[in-house]
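User: Can you write out an input/output pair for a complex, sequences first and structure second?

Assistant: Here is one pair. Inputs:
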Amino acid sequence: MLDKLQFVGQKLLATFARLGQATIFLYQIILTMPGVFIRPSLIIKQLYSTGVQTLVIILVAGTFVGMVLALQAYYVLVDFGAEESISQMVVLSLMRELAPVITGLLFAGRAGSALTAEIGLMKSTEQLSGMEMMAIDPMQRVMAPRILAGFMALPILTAIFMAVGVLGGYLVAVHGVGIYEGVYWSLAQAKVDFYTDLMNGMIKSIVFGLVIVWIAVFEGHDSVPTSEGLGQATTRTVVHGSLAVLGLDFLLTALMFGDI
Amino acid sequence: MSFSRGSRKIFNDISLDISRGNVTAIMGPSGTGKTTLLKLIGGQLIPDSGSICMDGNNVHELSRKDLYRLRKRMGMLFQSGALLTDLNVFDNIAYPIREHTDLDESMIRSLVLMKLNAVGLRGARDLMPSELSGGMARRVAMARAIALDPVMVMYDEPFTGQDPISMGVLVNLIRSMNQSLHLSSIVVSHDVRETMSISDQIYLISGGKIVAEGSPDELTKSSDPWVKQFIAGQPDGPVPFHYTADPLMQDLLQE
């Protein structure tokens, strides 16, 4: 019994120690942020690799999620003769929950894992040490632009997911099950509140973006410089990033919509 | 200076001098901490006790800003080359110059081409690191190490895994650059013949201690059995061929 308690205690202490390391790591990066804005090209380059290169998966996933939502909504609502409310269900589900969460999960899988692998490889091939020895701070030149780019990219990707999701829902609702086009758009417009629904969804995506790139960059920087270590770090990024998105989503939803 | 990793003592109260203008070699068997020593000199690691001084500055007492200022006067050639894989050869060498100076692009171009010419790779300026052979990558890394005109260059295992021609080129480059650029060079290696041919002073490290020091001639004439075994590359001697084990017959007869 005592052994088990000791085991749990050790694991907890190790987790808190790692969380502390990650926090100090983020703090060190934040301190170097002002220097990054002097070289916007570094951020633009990372925006391309984290944002633009994730675009295709977001467009495809967003369209299909919107289509499936509309179809499921129709099957439920038609029994009550309320099938004209499809757009309300599609748009609210997407803006409040699905767009930020699914974009976050896809972002952790696509961009997060790529970030960890890239930084881990830079570490194992001594590129980070090389920069240090050239008196160039890798926190400022490598980590900070990636954190900023991820932080900016996820809200934009979430907005795109929302837009194509609504369009996907439109395809199924209007051209698939025959809902009148005017009803679809007017209900979507009337039932969505800019602040309660859209802005809260965007706030979620900003938080998710920061947490995912933080985990990804830290795991890459902290990875064991072997092929096995790099594989484990990449896996940890996807697992921890995805769990963080889901856990934070609950917390943020409770805070944002708790009084409704 | 002493340094440990966890419970393992890497250096146990060692002391050495790197003379200005010389090529100083740090030699010893694999795993004795030769690369660790370079990282300690460069301020990437902190010793447990003692100090490391360069030009009167205690490297580990400097602020981050002053340490970076000092590092601009040090060049380092990493074992892997450590070239930035997303930049071509030209941009790799231009990188520290662009970061630390306000020179215009035409001046940077001239400087980079001169550095590349010094290592014989002016024609390879547009290649990516993945297109370079191991020897070429080391030479590009060498050009980058001297990009900011340092006073000291550290070479980490520069000859490992090189073919005879590349090895010859690197040996000549280290010696000639040390003379022509008035550098102080520290070469960490276990390639005895090549390293001894260009060194003015050699330190042999083993078991966390400096076991011998002197000029190549002095070490060649040394009567110390360990030094003799290392210099001649003998498979057996004070460093035994067999890892500590029970006698073979006893081991074989055991169930």
